[in-house]
Design a protein that fits this description.
Layout: E1 2-9, E2 12-19, E3 26-33, H1 39-52, E4 62-67, E5 78-80, H2 83-90, H3 100-113, E6 119-122, H4 142-147, H5 156-169, H6 173-185, E7 197-202, E8 208-213, E9 216-220, H7 243-251, H8 255-264, H9 267-272, H10 278-286, H11 290-314, E10 319-323, H12 324-329, H13 331-338, H14 350-355, E11 361-362, E12 371-374, H15 379-392
Parallel strand pairs: 1-4, 4-6, 7-10, 10-12
Antiparallel strand pairs: 1-2, 2-3, 5-6, 7-8, 8-9, 11-12
Length: about 400
Amino acid sequence: MKILVANLGSTSLKWRLFDFANGAERLLHKGGFERVANHSQAIEDCLAQLKTAGAIATENDLAAVGFKAVLAKGVNGCVRLDEAAVQAMEAFNAIAPAHNPPYIAGIRLFAKRVPNVPLVALFETAFYQWITDAATRYGVPAAWHEAGVRRWGFHGASHKFIAERSAELLGREDVAARARNLYVDGGATPVREPALRVISCHLGGSSSIAGIRNGVAIGNSLGMSPQSGLPHNNRVGDLDAMAVPFMMRTQGLSLDEAERQLCKDGGLKGVSGVSNDIRDIQTAAEQGNTAAQAAIDFFVHEVRRWIGAYLAELNGADALVFTAGIGENRGEIRAAICSQLDQLGIAIDAAKNCSTRGQEAVISAPDSRVKVMVIPTNEELVVAREVKRFLENPRTWQRTTLNG
């Protein structure tokens, strides 16, 4: 069974092709295009590369095309992308304006190009189906909550991978099995005591932190939209609700312009005034740019704040995991985040931390009560596994209907 996982951006297309033949799990091909002006041509070129590489002979060799979709109104889990599901995504375009529209456009193009191949989405909200009602709430009127103003949580594929892999590395196969089977049995796989408590830090162009108990998420720093939580590369992150009407009234901003600035000119870019790329910001900070240093300090502060929240919710932690572009590669950021947390049982080995870049490693000091780990994420593999499971038996796949 060959499953193509397509990752769509407004000007990009990235893909990985997995083969699950004979019980194996192999990555056959990966690639991508940046600065895409014509997604239809990009899809055509993607399929051509797969054929040239010998990964497929024709499009019909694909069992499915899987998508790491963000969210949809009234739909969650792993679903066949029929017209109703795509329209449900369109209904929440305003919540995820940078994500849903390019995904929808790409899905429609794939449907036209490979009409005989099933298109299946694993929604990023799926990992948070079992969090408590209290963890979903904002202090808004009930009608707002019912309309969809609530904490959804995102980066579900990444945090689910960390839930599985961290449990394996910590010798807790029982918890790893629960995490693997979560979307089928809803967390019914039994685990032994004590509980395994993991704080997963997905730090990159878009960042979030998840608390995970025994392979199941208890919450995520991202809330109603991918705009929330930690500061992102150019998206604002958490913001007081009155800031938007205040700026509209005092600065004469239209709603569209306020939204544009929050989505395009906020986050690390907005604070630093330099770039939306942490590498450029760090270079500028090293050269004495105080605004760039302020952006780094702000990012570290917010990561520590959310780690603290989940330390409280989990009553401590057994592992603190760093993943994604910043988390996997920026030792200096990891060191700043973990600085002076020894009273909470978190201490890193400076040499191990500095030498770890883009590879799996334990970077905590020998006397650290909490294992501090770097684990490269694999969101596409999670999507492919769940798409395979869905194709094999759609009725076994647990999913809920989102409010709204």
